[in-house]
């Protein structure tokens, strides 16, 4: 699954770059049958729409929608700036993948931050193991 996320990340990165070239072309009018009105859509529906676009490798459309959604929900639900585009879309896709399979752990952080996450997971694992041993007694 790691190569899948690397491919998605690359596609999203290219889409972000393409959108920067056409910064003024962030259409808010319907351009396809997949048009979404950012003013009437709910937050869960917005997330689902982004998941579908990334899943279908429609990353440019996903970036455009993400930026429209970010203007609607200014609370950080979709990141705080365009610098967050890749991370937000990767997170949305990871959420989609993890909802489809049980027991999946997806880490989308950089390598230098993984040591802290690994330590936390190891600590949680040890606590779980201790709890199971106590239940067995």
Number of DSSP E strands: 0
**What's the shape?**
elongated
Enumerate how many helices there are, as a single number.
5
Structural category:
mainly alpha
Mean pLDDT: 81
Major beta-sheet overview: none
Q: Outline the low-pLDDT stretches.
A: 25-33
- Share of helix, binned: 55-70%
Order of helices and strands: HHHHH
Give the C-alpha Rg: 18 Å
Q: What share of the residues does DSSP label as strand, in percent?
A: under 5%
Instruction: Give the terminus-to-terminus CA distance.
Output: 39 Å
What would you note in describing this structure?
- It is elongated and about 65 Å long.
- The chain is an all-alpha fold and 137 residues long.
- Mean pLDDT is 81; it is low at 25-33.
- α1 (2-21) packs across α3 (59-72), α2 runs antiparallel to α3 and α2 (43-55) packs across α4 (85-100).
- The chain has helices at 2-21, 43-55, 59-72, 85-100, 111-136.
What's the layout of helices and strands?
Elements: H1 2-21, H2 43-55, H3 59-72, H4 85-100, H5 111-136
Helix pairs in contact: 1-3, 1-4, 2-3, 2-4
Question: What descriptors fit this protein?
Answer:
137 residues, mainly alpha, elongated
Quick take:
The chain is mainly alpha-helical. The protein is built from five helices and no strands. The radius of gyration is 18 Å and the shape is elongated.
